[in-house]
Specification:
seven-stranded mixed β-sheet, three-stranded antiparallel β-sheet, 1 helix, 5% helix
Length: 163
């Protein structure tokens, strides 16, 4: 890697279905979940390793409204129970709008422990507010917990959060 300066994390913008970025290290240090400081001067780094895994997990489901009927307009948010993973574009933080039939699907998740919540899209506020740690902290107290194993697909029915 050459030409980078400052503190950075590495994120894959897209991967094939069933895959995720398992680790990314620079000079033996994590650059996936912790920022790596490339310094103020451009330098060349040759000890760089990206590990991709084809053992991603998947979360699918639907939401029920206050009347117990399938909701159609909501956003599903799946996020790690580990607060150190609550940062913009974290591989363990995803949101998807419901499809027209009221279902959601969130794939390419690393195995681990997660919160899942479904909320009215209007309650999110700004476009990417769902990635804000303060928003996630508040949401975590009302979210359901689940553990996803390698290659596991979990289906859930979740109550729509009225807040």
């Amino acid at each position: 890697i050459a030409g980078l300066t400052g503190s950075r994390r590495f994120v894959l913008q897209s991967v094939p279905d069933g895959w995720y970025l398992e680790s990314f290290t620079v000079n033996g240090r994590d650059a996936l979940y912790a920022p790596f400081d490339f310094g103020l001067q451009e330098a060349r780094f040759s000890d760089v390793e990206a590990v991709l895994s084809d053992a991603a997990a998947e979360m699918t489901g639907r939401a029920l409204d206050a009347r117990g009927e399938v909701a159609r307009a909501y956003t599903a948010i799946v996020f790690s129970t580990d607060r150190s993973h609550w940062f913009r574009e974290s591989p363990r933080l995803r949101a998807r709008r419901a499809s027209t039939n009221g279902e959601f699907r969130i794939g390419n998740l690393p195995p681990g422990d997660y919160f899942v919540a479904v909320i009215d899209p209007q309650s999110i506020g700004a476009f990417d507010a769902w990635q804000d740690p303060a928003f996630l902290e508040d949401l975590s107290s009302r979210a359901e917990r689940l553990t996803l194993g390698e290659r596991e697909t979990r289906r859930m029915t979740v109550r729509l959060d009225a807040r």
